[in-house]
Design goal:
The complex is a heterodimer of chains A (119) and B (231). Chain A contains 5 helices and no strands. Chain A is mainly alpha-helical and 119 residues long. In chain B, helix 9 packs across helix 14. The chains are: A mainly alpha (119), B mainly alpha (231). The interface between A and B is large, with 77 and 106 residues.
Chain lengths: 119, 231
């Protein structure tokens, strides 16, 4: 567990370093994830400490998100005038986009799975 | 006097977050009501408590830093479920890319059309265009587009919370039951909060949500500034 956690921390720090040096448009944690994914591809297996640390952390992902979410308090007045337009745009686009993305992916997936199942 | 000592203790923010989250989780499981997303309820409880105690967000954030700091390593950890589902992802690479590109573009276009139609100003429109991606990327891109950076963080949170609350209902209504498709839709429309929900549904769904979230994030960082300069 501790060994796995150390890995995750080290990869995030490496990601931050790369972000500061040459990839300013991507946050360090995202680069860290790509690095870990690349490492796992090369390695061909996930060792147990890393597996434990990852699933332990991901179990609590919703808890970790509460702190930045409360930052909603800082919204201030910049958006008051446009509140209606913002609310309508957020909700209506989700109403269309969530079913669309799910439907499109399911449609394309089923086609490929059917093809793969054929002899 | 005792009250102030309690609120100003460094552990108050941490305790508040833990209590609010556990209550929200209990309520969510007890009610079985998908609209009561734990992240949203816990956030509302924390905000209400901060207003009630007069604590400002910066102080709260500092106290709750041990929790928030783990968000980075948790993001890195998403590579693990991604790797576990490598076979499936390889098989479905083309559908994934198509859905993320088309779905991502559709969300941005719809959002901008609706907001523009209702008279939103240009900086607000620029900020809205980043609302579907994870917060750090959204804030970076908003900065590049001369949008309103604190507003970007708020819109990202709102999208995640609303998308995750509506997602299960909308996907059921559209008869989407394939775990890969559900995960992808959560990841494209509700980034990390949607991914947390998808992980609850299962590892395959979670892996596809994490993949969609990162792909959309990377594509947005690279393509959105270019696309917005054409509009």
């Amino acid at each position: 567990m501790l060994k796995g956690l150390t890995w995750l921390l080290a990869l995030q720090l490496a990601g931050n370093l790369l972000s500061a040096l040459c990839l300013p448009m991507l946050p360090g944690a995202v680069i860290g994830m790509l690095l870990l994914f690349g490492y796992l591809l090369v390695r061909g297996t996930v060792d147990e400490p890393l597996n434990q640390a990852a699933s332990g952390l991901l179990n609590y992902l919703p808890l970790l998100l509460v702190v930045p979410a409360a930052g909603i308090m800082l919204a201030g007045d910049a958006w008051r005038e446009d509140a209606l337009a913002i609310a309508a745009a957020l909700v209506l686009s989700l109403l269309v986009s969530i079913p669309f993305c799910g439907w499109l992916m399911q449609h394309l997936t089923r086609r490929i799975e059917r093809k793969a199942a054929e002899p | 006097m005792g009250w102030r000592a309690l609120v100003s203790h460094p552990l108050f923010a941490l305790g508040l977050t833990l209590v609010a989250f556990q209550f929200a989780l209990w309520l969510y499981r007890r009610s079985g009501w998908l609209l009561l997303q734990p992240v949203m309820i816990a956030m509302l409880l924390v905000v209400a408590a901060l207003f009630a105690t007069g604590l400002d967000y910066a102080t709260y954030r500092q106290g709750a830093a041990p929790i928030a700091l783990l968000l980075g390593p948790a993001t890195v950890a998403l590579a693990v479920p991604l790797y576990h589902n490598l076979q499936r992802i390889r098989l479905l690479l083309l559908p994934i890319l198509l859905t993320v590109l088309l779905g991502g573009a559709l969300t941005v276009l719809l959002t901008l059309l609706i907001a523009h139609g209702l008279g939103a100003r240009v900086p607000v429109l620029m900020t809205l265009s980043t609302k579907s991606v994870t917060m750090p990327i959204a804030m970076l891109v908003t900065e590049q587009l001369h949008g309103i950076v604190p507003l970007a963080a708020v819109l990202v949170m709102l999208t995640g919370v609303i998308g995750t609350a509506l997602g299960p209902l909308l996907l059921r209504w559209a008869r989407v039951d394939h775990p890969a498709a559900r995960g992808l839709s959560y990841g494209i429309n509700a980034h990390a909060i949607g991914t947390a929900r998808a992980l609850e549904e299962g590892e395959e769904s979670g892996a596809f949500a994490a993949l969609a979230m990162s792909l959309l994030g990377v594509l947005t960082a690279v393509l959105l500034p270019v696309a917005m300069s054409w509009l």
